[in-house]
Design goal:
Layout lengths: L1 E6 L6 H12 L2 E4 L6 H8 L6 H20 L4 E4 L5 H8 L4 E8 L2 H10 L10 H7 L10 E4 L4 H16 L1
Parallel strand pairs: 1-3, 1-4, 2-3, 4-5
Length: about 170
């Protein structure tokens, strides 16, 4: 069973793409934001970037849930920033059939999307810190890179098509 991580900075469309994949493929959707402890959410709401120490318990909780689903014979897709290589390694540790989908986009486009987003704890002011932290996946991570410049529906369709190619 597959564990797919849809990753990228805040506002790039992780939840939209992951939900589209989950629906099309019949997989379980794990929204990474729902695994944040209240202290992390409060920190981000206050405009303070998370540290590695803040992120490790969150990442380990997501990884444990994905591993549990995989052990039950279920595939899942995770929407999670996974900005650093070490974070991705923690998320995929011990998983056998994995895919990494990197949603790549221009900072100005993502900033415009964040400015329009409502009712989310991640303020647009933290976007610079997200890009500063981002370590784009290296070739040896075998990422599926999807550009987010198109419509959300087209980005989801491209991600699904590339994921299906990856599984072949």
């Amino acid at each position: 069973m597959t564990v797919a991580i849809v990753m990228g900075v805040s506002g790039c469309g992780k939840t939209t793409v992951a939900a589209g994949i989950a629906q099309a493929m019949g997989w379980v959707l794990l929204e990474g934001d729902s695994f944040h402890p209240p202290a992390n959410i409060a920190k981000m709401q206050a405009g303070t970037p998370l540290t590695d120490d803040d992120r490790w318990p969150w990442l380990h909780a997501i990884a444990a849930r994905a591993a549990s689903l995989q052990s039950q014979g279920l595939s899942c897709v995770v929407a999670c920033s996974a900005l650093k290589r070490a974070y991705r390694a923690a998320l995929l540790a011990g998983q056998t059939d994995t895919a990494l989908i990197f949603l790549r986009g221009d900072q100005a486009l993502i900033a415009a999307r964040l400015a329009e987003r409502r009712n989310h704890f991640m303020p647009p002011g933290l976007l610079d810190s997200q890009f500063a932290t981002l370590e784009p996946p290296a070739m040896d991570e075998h990422p599926i890179v999807v550009d987010i410049g198109d419509t959300p529906q087209a980005v989801v369709a491209q991600a699904i098509a590339r994921l299906q190619e990856h599984q072949s």
